[in-house]
Design brief:
single chain, 56 residues, mainly alpha, 75% helix
């Protein structure tokens, strides 16, 4: 799961969401990375809680 999360973060969040504007500066990249990281964290947290409940 950690490897999948890392792959998601590297490919989707940082590479695919990178946008070049007319002045060649991506002013909103930090916001997109923050949203992607948060989404990834919540997905992993929900998966962890679901598997933890099924084991117990």
């Amino acid at each position: 799961m950690g490897l999948g999360d890392h792959l998601f973060n590297n490919t989707v969040v940082t590479n695919l969401l990178h946008v070049i504007s007319n002045n060649e500066a991506d002013s909103m990249q930090v916001v997109r990375v923050l949203i992607g990281q948060s989404l990834s964290f919540f997905i992993v947290a929900l998966y962890y809680r679901k598997t933890k409940k099924s084991i117990s």
